Amino acid sequence: MSLIIGVGNEYRRDDGAGFAAARRLRAENPDVPVVLQSGDGVSLMEAWRDADSVIVVDAVHSAGKPGSVHRFDAAARPIPAKFFPSSTHAFGLAEAVEMARALGRLPERLIVYGIEGKTFEAGTGLSPEVEEGVSQVVEQVLREIC
Q: Which residues of 135-145 are buried (b: 16+ CB within 10 A; e: fewer)?
């Protein structure tokens, strides 16, 4: 089974990038299940438990250019923790990936897309740069799953 997971908080501006991408992917390809997650590591591990192919989309804050897209093959190697800090999630995405790897519960294929955010303050709506990054991720993911 394939699965797309959008991670984030749409009430913290660009942190909603994962949700925005996941919703657009659901609209473009309703045959692939889509799940929205807050980023809690245990919930992520539970969400991908029965899937062999998973794509996760989340906002990142690594001091890169806003809207830039990072792609990681998390099944092949650890994702850089600096891209997915666990400050807002006690046990976040990077930790969930490594815990699942240690427990032998990592999906066979786990691709993580990070969209570089610009602003994570309270409020709704993505910055224009992040909107463009979301569009890029949607295009890339659709190529990967088709």
A: eebbebbeeeb
Domain count, the chain: 1
Q: Which domain holds residue 24?
A: 2-145
Range 5-23 average pLDDT: 96
Report which residue type is found at 132: E
pTM for this predicted structure:
0.93
Distance CA 98, CA 78 (A): 7
Nearest by Cα to 57 from 71, 45, 68? 71
Which of 83, 93, 114 minimizes the C-alpha distance to 44? 93
pLDDT of residue 86: 56
